């Protein structure tokens, strides 16, 4: 059974269909090129990607609940998921790679090898942006003073 | 024949200069670097220097051992030891990291008979260490500094107070001390009449009695510097009256009605001051002697921009100023009830530049960040800095948090601040765009112009400095010995270019950059004077790429990623992830033997990952 790539806009990030909140839009879009997949991954928030990769694996098919964000497209997106079920299409040698991101779901038919490469690529991109993990800290004595001042 | 034998007894290596002459001469050579150079000339000079050396600073206690110190410098009179990485001052290092003084104190008790002055900085001290020290060296000890130390209680200080009758300096600033009672100060007051400096500033010792302070002031006629923890100032009236030689005071607090303080009078020679919780209403008590002030600490005061300007205008002789970018927020039971703006800002810097021509050291710290309460007038940025560079030509030390910065303001420092030896700039993490990034050209101009620079810290954000800019830092800092690079550069190319320069760099700290383990390792090998490296925030690799910098006498340690509990802006305890650290340093003592769970020697880490 061949499976086509499906993009479902559950959370209505596309503002055109304003009148019908309940109807999900269905877009049939075959995406096979590696570059497309790469561009999707590179737009994701690496923070979230990192936590997904850490907790999930290629076999993991669990769905994590994600809350819809506000309509503001510039806020950080809802938690995306990467899941590539171990039991894919054995006949053709490809498995489906499902990416949940920013209210959209994309499913790609890729070989196991490619899926692993994509996950590795995502991981590499993640470690580049360590900066966001490290906030500026304040000196100990000043920190203590600011605490004490609140208590006065 | 007779004469030949006489000559050979007094000459050193046949060059004709008798040892006796050199032994006299060496007593006049005080600078540590000069003594270091002298000791490398020949074996005989090394021996003479070693025998005559009075003071040694060991920048990291794990680089050597007490025995080695004794073997080389048996006649030491003064020793300074440091341990925890500087990052410990920002809560980034586990408390039990290491730096125990015990082995050192034991050797001091046993062998260093001439030791009079001891300074431990960022180390772990136990009550038993203090007891041993007091017992073995109590009468000889003239100066004891437990500087940002931890692990001891007021019981340990009791031994010091009882036995160290000749103590001129007792310094405990910012140490974490377990408080049992205030007896230690009482013992000190009873047993000592030569005290000159007493400092327990920024400790949380609240049971120290002001009556004991007054007793010390009456008994110790040479008392010149006293900095204490929180203590109502009106209780110190007697103390101030007795301490007639006092030049420096810090601490205290203001809990009474503002009017009460108008009757407070200070000692006549007071010229260094820092009053905790001083607000706008109490500030006028300083006015009568403001023109005498050389050092002013406003880090823990509660003043706003207008107050700062008013006060600074009256201090034309100011040489050292410490101030905070802090917002005047009044809390009652943890709830915000009032907000006054409490910042120095560009206007304050302009006043400073106009009035304080003698300014040598300026530190502008980061205060509270309350959302939505940023005051335009209170933020420090390029216009303030440019005024400062133009106006305060004597400036030697500048440490500042800024909200905005331009290349031209950095160029101003390069052009006018010819006395600058220590420059530290941090760009705050605000949402607003910064006018003029990257700062490559400004940084280059600053480094080229300030040729006395020895210490340099720059903490920006992604895009703040390119790889080319990092290369400039390497190329134009010939004399800089210590650097902190925060969020600089774009790629490995940056650090690799940087490390081709910096010929004098001994100690390097890197935070929040994107360099790979391999690039870091290669950089270490290229920096020819480097003896100490600390990194937090780097691109870890699955293979132990750090091994590229493995070499004899080079210890590599890791503090792997861990969960830490910190206070969020509302004071609630939250668990956050603290990324991994790398610490590497030259040592003659081999790897440490006292690792806590949180610290891992690199060899083991590499083995586990393989």
From TrEMBL, chain A:
Top-level taxonomic group: Eukaryota
One Pfam family matching this protein: tify
Coiled coil: none
Assigned keywords, A-Z: Jasmonic acid signaling pathway, Nucleus
Residue intervals of the Tify domain: 90-124
GO cellular component, one term: nucleus
Record GO biological process: regulation of defense response; regulation of jasmonic acid mediated signaling pathway; response to wounding
Location relative to the cell: Nucleus
Family: Belongs to the TIFY/JAZ family.
Entry text on domains: The jas domain is required for interaction with COI1.
Entry function: Repressor of jasmonate responses.
Name of this chain's protein: Protein TIFY
Automatic annotation (TrEMBL), chain B:
UniProt xrefs under InterPro entries: COI1_F-box (IPR041567), Leu-rich_rpt_Cys-con_subtyp (IPR006553), LRR_dom_sf (IPR032675), Transp_inhibit (IPR041101)
Domain COI1 F-box: 16-55
Positions of the Transport inhibitor response domain: 74-120
Assigned GO CC terms: SCF ubiquitin ligase complex
Gene Ontology terms describing biological process: SCF-dependent proteasomal ubiquitin-dependent protein catabolic process
Gene3D superfamilies: 1.20.1280.50, Ribonuclease Inhibitor
Transmembrane segments: none
Classification via Pfam families: F-box_5 (PF18511), Transp_inhibit (PF18791)
UniProt xrefs under PANTHER family: CORONATINE-INSENSITIVE PROTEIN 1, F-BOX/TPR REPEAT PROTEIN POF3
Name of the protein this chain belongs to: RNI-like superfamily protein
Species assigned in the record: Actinidia rufa
């Amino acid at each position: 059974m061949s499976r086509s790539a499906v993009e479902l806009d559950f959370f209505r990030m596309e503002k055109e269909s304003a009148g019908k909140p309940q109807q999900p839009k269905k877009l049939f879009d075959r995406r096979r090129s590696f570059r497309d997949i790469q561009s999707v991954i590179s737009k994701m928030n690496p923070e979230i990607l990192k936590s997904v990769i850490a907790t999930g694996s290629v076999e993991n098919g669990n769905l994590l609940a994600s809350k819809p964000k506000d309509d503001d497209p510039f806020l950080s997106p809802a938690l995306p998921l990467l899941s590539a079920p171990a039991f894919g299409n054995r006949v053709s040698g490809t498995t489906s790679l499902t990416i949940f991101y920013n209210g959209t779901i994309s499913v790609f038919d890729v070989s196991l090898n490619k899926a692993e490469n994509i996950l590795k690529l995502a991981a590499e991109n993640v470690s580049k942006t360590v900066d966001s993990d490290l906030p500026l800290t304040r000196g100990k004595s000043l920190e203590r003073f600011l605490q004490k001042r609140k208590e006065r | 024949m007779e004469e030949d034998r006489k000559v050979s007894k007094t000459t050193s290596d046949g060059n004709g200069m008798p040892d006796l002459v050199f032994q006299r001469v060496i007593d006049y050579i005080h600078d540590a670097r000069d003594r270091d150079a002298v000791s490398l000339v020949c074996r005989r000079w090394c021996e003479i220097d070693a025998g005559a050396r009075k003071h040694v600073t060991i920048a990291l206690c794990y680089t050597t051992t007490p025995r080695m110190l004794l073997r080389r410098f048996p006649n030491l009179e003064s020793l300074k030891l440091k341990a925890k990485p500087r990052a410990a001052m920002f809560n980034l290092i586990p408390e039990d990291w290491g730096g125990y003084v015990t082995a050192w104190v034991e050797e001091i008790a046993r062998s260093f008979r001439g030791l009079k002055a001891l300074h431990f900085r960022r180390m772990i001290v136990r009550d038993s260490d203090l007891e041993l020290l007091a017992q073995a060296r109590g009468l000889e000890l003239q100066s004891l500094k437990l500087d940002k130390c931890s692990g001891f209680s007021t019981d340990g200080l009791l031994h010091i107070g009882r036995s160290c009758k000749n103590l001129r300096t007792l310094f405990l600033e910012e140490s974490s001390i377990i408080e049992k009672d205030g007896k230690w100060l009482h013992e000190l007051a009873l047993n000592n009449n030569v005290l000159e400096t007493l400092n327990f500033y920024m400790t949380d010792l609240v049971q120290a009695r002001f009556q004991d302070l007054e007793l010390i002031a009456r008994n110790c006629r040479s008392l010149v510097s006293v900095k204490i923890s929180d203590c109502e100032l009106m209780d110190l009236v007697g103390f101030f009256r007795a301490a007639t030689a006092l030049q420096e005071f810090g601490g205290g607090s203001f809990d009474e009605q503002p009017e009460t303080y108008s009757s407070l009078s200070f000692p006549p020679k007071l010229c260094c001051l820092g009053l905790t919780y001083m607000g706008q209403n109490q500030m006028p008590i300083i006015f009568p002697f403001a023109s005498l002030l050389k050092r002013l600490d406003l880090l823990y005061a509660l003043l706003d921009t207008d107050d700062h300007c008013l006060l600074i205008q009256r201090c034309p002789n100011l040489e050292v100023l410490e101030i905070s970018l802090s917002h005047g927020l009044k809390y009652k039971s943890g709830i915000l009830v009032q907000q006054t703006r409490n910042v120095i800002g560009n206007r304050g810097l302009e006043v400073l530049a106009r009035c304080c021509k003698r300014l040598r050291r300026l530190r502008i710290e980061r205060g509270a960040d309350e959302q939505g309460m940023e005051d335009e007038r209170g933020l420090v940025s390029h216009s303030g800095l440019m005024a400062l560079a133009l106006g305060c030509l004597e400036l030697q030390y500048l440490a500042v948090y800024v909200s905005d910065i331009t290349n031209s303001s950095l160029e101003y420092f390069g052009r006018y601040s010819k006395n600058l030896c220590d420059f530290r700039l941090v760009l705050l993490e605000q949402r607003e765009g910064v006018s003029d990034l990257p700062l490559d050209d400004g940084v280059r101009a600053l480094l080229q112009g300030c040729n006395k620079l020895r210490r340099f810290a720059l903490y920006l954000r992604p895009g703040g400095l390119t790889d080319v800019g990092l290369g400039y830092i390497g190329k134009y800092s010939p004399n800089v010995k210590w650097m902190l690079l925060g969020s600089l550069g774009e790629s490995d190319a940056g650090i690799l270019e940087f490390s081709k320069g910096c010929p004098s760099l001994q100690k390097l700290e890197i935070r929040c950059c994107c360099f790979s383990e391999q690039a870091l390792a290669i950089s270490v090998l290229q920096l020819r004077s480097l003896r100490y490296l600390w990194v937090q925030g780097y691109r870890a690799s699955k293979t132990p790429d750090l091994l590229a910098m493995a070499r004899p006498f080079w210890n590599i340690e890791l503090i792997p990623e861990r969960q830490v509990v910190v206070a969020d802006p509302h004071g609630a305890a939250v668990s956050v992830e603290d990324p991994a650290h790398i610490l590497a340093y030259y040592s003659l003592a081999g790897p440490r033997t006292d690792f806590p769970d949180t610290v891992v020697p690199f060899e083991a880490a590499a083995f586990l990952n393989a």
